[in-house]
Amino acid sequence: MIAHDTSPRARTIAIGDIHGCLRALDTLLTAIDPQPHDTIVALGDFVDRGPDACGVLDRLLQLEQQCQLVAILGNHDEMFLNALAGLGSAADWLEVGGRQTLQSYGLRACALPSEIAAVVPSHHVDFLGRCLPWFETETHFFVHANYLADHSLNEIEAYWLRWLSLREYLPPAHENGKTAVVGHTKQRTGEIFDCGYLKCIDTGCHAGLWLTALDVNTGQLWQANQRGEVRTPS
User: Fold this and answer.
1) Which residues of 84-103 are buried (b: 16+ CB within 10 A; e: fewer)?
2) pTM of the full predicted structure?
């Protein structure tokens, strides 16, 4: 990962849960037109539910060569890594989108961990293995799911960072005073959830809604869907 650029021309743009929606991601990136000095923070859940997890990971690896990419590990990415290692419940993972991920690699749902590991490219595994649990700038911090307001980011357990929905627990503002940008909790309206100190930009692309990108410094929004449509909400 290239060092974070803080020059005035640099943008910091967060992208919500992609979930295998390659067409939406490509459409969104065309609209954003990332430049070498931009930082793109992808908030995790790159795989599962949508049709092309394999293609999404390839596209993110290409994006690393185009700009400064920060990839956050989501709970679905964690489940995929566990499936590759033969850990966790494969049946549970298949029920929440793992089937679609395996299909994107040409695998059957009943594939064994050894079969999955033999087909999934090592550079995909390496990419997911080096995803971050969180990221912060001078003004914002980024996690996949949630946080504890009175704990420093490096003290928060994975369950909070990757699994806990905002519907289960809406945290207060973090003690660090920075704005939180999160995904994970699907907004069924297709609009971002914004309570000032926290913005959730998972807007349900895999469910036929939108993939959202947010310039965290200007507030500019871009959204794209799997039909290749783009909108720029005000």
Assistant:
1) beeeeebeebbeebbbbbbb
2) 0.95
Strand ranges, E, within 58-167: 68-71, 135-136, 140-142
Residue numbers annotated as active site:
76
Q: In the numeric block, which tokens belong to residue 182?
A: 């999160």
Question: Token pair 């743009």 is at which residue?
Answer: 13
pLDDT tens by residue, the chain, 234 residues: 334 555 667 999 999 999 999 999 999 999 999 999 999 999 999 999 999 999 999 999 999 999 999 999 999 999 999 999 989 888 899 999 999 999 999 999 988 888 999 999 999 999 999 999 999 999 999 999 999 999 999 999 999 999 999 999 999 999 999 999 999 999 999 999 999 999 999 999 999 999 999 999 999 999 999 999 999 987
How many Cβ atoms are within 10 Å of 110's Cβ, its own excluded? 10
The kind and range of the H/E element at 13 are strand 12-15
**51 in Cβ contact with 32 (< 8 Å):** no
